[in-house]
Amino acid sequence: MLEHALTPEWLLVGKALAVALPQAAPLDAAIDACTGAIGDGHSLRDPLELRPLPLSGIPGWHPDGEVEAFHRTAPCYQPLRAGRIYPEPLKVG
């Protein structure tokens, strides 16, 4: 992925496990919940459970990342495919 980052015209998209974490919860609780859910077989049973994460939209990853129009028009932001449903975020706390 680092090689792709050297080519700014390539818009990077990763995959992420969504976690709902209360603001006051310690990060360790989120890590414990994630590893526990994966170990118990409740999360990551199927790679399609991972949500797309448009890395190019994170400030500093792409030269146009600070431009509002970029976030409306960049192809790394795509609507969900018809019929695609992601699991609810993993709830912590």
List the main descriptive attributes of the protein structure presented here.
93 residues, alpha+beta, two-stranded parallel ribbon, 3 helices, 4 strands
Any overview of this molecule?
By secondary structure, the chain is of the alpha+beta class. Helix content is 25%, strand content 11%. It has a domain at 52-78. The protein contains three helices and four strands. Strands 1-3 form a two-stranded antiparallel ribbon. Strands 2-4 form a two-stranded parallel ribbon. It is globular, with a radius of gyration of 16 Å. The model has no long low-confidence stretch (mean pLDDT 85).
Strand-pairing-aware structural class? alpha+beta
Global mean pLDDT: 85
Strand order of the largest sheet: 1-3
DSSP E strands, number: 4
Radius of gyration, whole Å: 16 Å
List the secondary-structure elements in sequence, H or E. HEEHEHE
- Low-pLDDT regions: none
Give the structure's gist in a few sentences:
Helix content is 25%, strand content 11%.
Layout of strands and helices, then pairs:
Elements: H1 2-5, E1 14-16, E2 19-20, H2 27-39, E3 51-53, H3 68-73, E4 90-91
Parallel strand pairs: 2-4
Antiparallel strand pairs: 1-3
